[in-house]
Amino acid sequence: MADTTTADTITMEVSRYRPEQESEPALQSYQVPLRKQWAILDGLNYIKDRLDGTLSYRWSCRMGICGSCGMTVNGEPKLTCSTFLTDYAPGPVRVEPMRNFPVIRDLVVDISDFMEKLPKVKPWLIRSDDTEPEDGEYLQTPEQMDEYKKYSMCINCMLCYAACPVYALDPLFIGPAAIALGQRYNLDSRDEGAEDRRDVLASAEGAWACTYVGECSVACPKGVDPAGAIQRYKLTAATKSLKEFLLPRGAR
């Protein structure tokens, strides 16, 4: 098929997979307006609204907050609401589902594995008792907040899983985002649940499975640096294990 891209349009090559019709995904080309303010998601919405109402994909907030519009754009994991068509001019721009997840339909992937693994790291504040402080708040200094703030910016977009070569080869790996979120709470001065998370985070399928390729941090649209969080947790876990081995129980 000849490329009919003009200065005012761009060709979007979109992965189509309808299991009742196709045995495997295939690219389908569409011509969409090339406008400076249009993100990849705007192009997909144009296709859905004007050209082909059968196209399936996920999106919600359009503001880089919900994390639902993650896809593969020209081979790279991206949030399509914050990745612009003009960055790929003159085109074509290829849009495919996120890698490392089963494809349900077109650009929609099955995220069940992530949703099952995430609660295993207990990504919430854990306290040893239910006693509330007198003023109703657990106060923190700015320095204490800075310890974990970067890791709290995760929006569960799963782009790090799509970029992770370890997860691609070993589906038992708990994954970058889950480990980073567990570490986020371990570093929170209000939390007392590090031991509760240890069996998962320090397991063979946890932080130790990571080979530190770093692609997860490159793909993260929020600068969370899951690779850094994982390596930091490895140091914490190794130090803890060494102390338990060398020191009497009361001196740890």
TrEMBL record:
Pfam families: Fer2_3, Fer4_8. It catalyses: a menaquinone + succinate = a menaquinol + fumarate; a quinone + succinate = fumarate + a quinol. Keywords: 2Fe-2S, 3Fe-4S, 4Fe-4S, Cell membrane, Electron transport, Iron, Iron-sulfur, Membrane, Metal-binding, Oxidoreductase, Transport, Tricarboxylic acid cycle. Residues 8-101 form the 2Fe-2S ferredoxin-type domain. InterPro entries: 2Fe-2S_ferredoxin-like_sf, 2Fe-2S_ferredoxin-type, 2Fe2S_fd_BS, 4Fe4S_Fe-S-bd, 4Fe4S_Fe_S_CS, Beta-grasp_dom_sf, Helical_ferredxn, SDH/FRD_Iron-Sulfur. Belongs to the succinate dehydrogenase/fumarate reductase iron-sulfur protein family. This is Fumarate reductase iron-sulfur subunit.
